[in-house]
Amino acid sequence: MPEGTAETTDIFEIMHTMRAMRRLKPDPVPDELIRKILLAGQAAANGGNTQRWRFLVLKNHPGKKVVQGYYKKLFDEVVGPRYRNSAPPPGSDQQKQLRQMAANQYLTDHYHEAPVWIVACLEGDNPGYSSGASIYPAVENMLLAARALGLGSTLTTRHIGYAKECDEAMGIPPNYHSYAILPIGYPMGRFGPVGRGPLSEVVYLDGWGNPYPGI
């Protein structure tokens, strides 16, 4: 897959070049682009079309810095050691793993500086597997829309380790929960092929573990 262009409408190029962009420029993002991203999220599948989602856009909210503090705490305690002590994932290697860790460290330190956050929230007291099915499709749609517009982002959920504290800092009422934060901005790096392992290793046909010939 060739290096992706900044803006594109080819859905397959968008999906296959939607790298996690963890280094973002501080330049403001026009509201008309934010609106396009939000409309893409609102168009997503959700259980029973109940649309129990809410999308909180944060630009200059003081809660961003508070959440960044918890985000960094979890990096220092959990994510950083995991990067240092884990084998590279499929489709990666040690050097790529180290570059990804450095990018993750950068995002951790500058999380609150992303010009736009979109916080994906869902109504209900019991966040879990089935609930996520009604919000994460919207999250993916927004990531794809951002990529199509030449904007960088990445799916972040680390703050959920301190969900109550972070939701309070962002002003989210108790009957809603944040499921993801999308930091959005113009990327410092370039879009390009995502790193994944062989498809044949994760696809089975007519039985767990049965290879799918030709995949």
Overview of this structure, please?
The mean pLDDT is 91. 28% of the residues are buried. With 215 residues, the protein is α+β, with helices and mostly antiparallel strands. The protein has a three-stranded antiparallel β-sheet, with helices on one face. The chain has a single domain (11-201), classed as NADH Oxidase. The longest helix is centred in the middle third of the chain and has 23 residues, at 63-85. The protein is globular and about 50 Å long. The protein has helices at residues 11-16, 31-42, 63-85, 94-110, 129-132, 136-148, 163-169; strands at residues 53-58, 116-123, 176-184.
Low-confidence stretches: none
Number of strands: 3
Broad structural category: alpha+beta
Task: Provide mean pLDDT, rounded.
Answer: 91
Main β-sheet: number of strands, strand sense, barrel status? Answer: 3 strands, antiparallel
Termini gap? 17 Å
CATH topology group: NADH Oxidase
Number of continuous helical runs: 7
Shape: globular
Percent of residues in β-strands: 5-15%
SSE series: HHEHHEHHHE
Number of domains: 1
Strand order, main sheet: write it out. Answer: 1-2-3
Query: At the fourth CATH level, what is the homologous superfamily?
Result: NADH Oxidase
Which CATH architecture is right?
Answer: 3-Layer(aba) Sandwich
Please bin the fraction of helical residues: 25-40%
Radius of gyration: 18 Å
Quick one: CATH class?
Answer: Alpha Beta
